Amino acid sequence: MARKIVKRGPKDYRQAELTHSGLLRIDLDDYTRASGDFGVFDLATEKYLRVGEVTLIDEDQKYVERRLSPSGSGPANLGPVVDWTPDVFFEPSAVGGPYEEVTVPTSYGFAPAWLFEAENKDVWVIHIHGSWTDRSIMFRDVHAFKSLGFTSLVPSFRSDTEVSPQQAASSHLGQTEWLDVESAMTYAVAHGARRIVLSGWSMGGTIALLTAERSVHRDRIVGIVLVGPVTSWRKTITAGAARAGVPAIGAGFVMRLLQAPTFAKMLGLGEAINFTALEWVDVPNRVVVPTLVLHSIKDQEVPWEISLAFQRANPETVTLIAMPESHHTQEWNTSPLVFTHELTSWVRKTIAGSG
User: Fold this and answer.
1) How would DSSP label each residue in 152-165?
2) Which DSSP helix (H) or strand (E) runs through 262?
3) pTM
4) pLDDT of 274-305, one tens digit each?
């Protein structure tokens, strides 16, 4: 259980093919049956395809058929094995607008990042991805912010495979990764950022909250946007254990082990996990920066109830928006128009006129 918390898990591949009518047929599960737009990565051709509307669910044969998006855009063949992903843009050019690959200096070397320059170079958004994903997963977030005209920076951090030299083989649950977001903020300030918005998804929420408290540039942070955020690792791990049939006492034991330096070292952690430092639900009024939380009421990995408790602990600063049913950090996929409207409306009201 401890390894599952801090180590990268294996890819969960699915069987897939194209039908004679040009639809994607893929193994049926809770993710592939979900409404909205998603992507598949074809291991044979090493290409991505965007998929949309569900046209057929066969419960007996255990497959689902979905249209390609746009319709008729697929190759002649696909599969037999694909990776299912919530990423629908696949590369920075698909988001639209000018961008460039930049390198952010860090304490260990250089971390690659995408810079999306916009008309407003005074306000920058730092887009922070979660654990065991990569920065491309945040293209949806960049797309949602796009109409606001802010400059966007999408950094990598030390547990990503693309940083040079390679760093952590284990996730520190945001406890050390926030330092690389601090480096990204330093880069932004050096390139003209006067006001900064931190936008974090899942563990990226933990990182954003830590950065807002600890950064030397924290006075420039005018807002935080969180999507399906981990605001209490204790409660998130306990909820995950319950889903897996592990009693709460077992989850508590694992967390005590992760707080022990010797055990943490055995898992490849550079330091033990300080769960108290990663707790915003049981600490009233810890959040001082205006914060928006967008969270699906049916999120199973980070339950909605944790965000509800987070908002109640920070009633003066945190706005919580209940998003329609979707899986973890797939709020944009299920309802992109609703997601973008809620985000941009809050930003315009709360942030755009500040400073």
Assistant:
1) EEEE--TTSTTSBS
2) helix 261-266
3) 0.95
4) 999 999 999 999 999 999 999 999 999 999 99
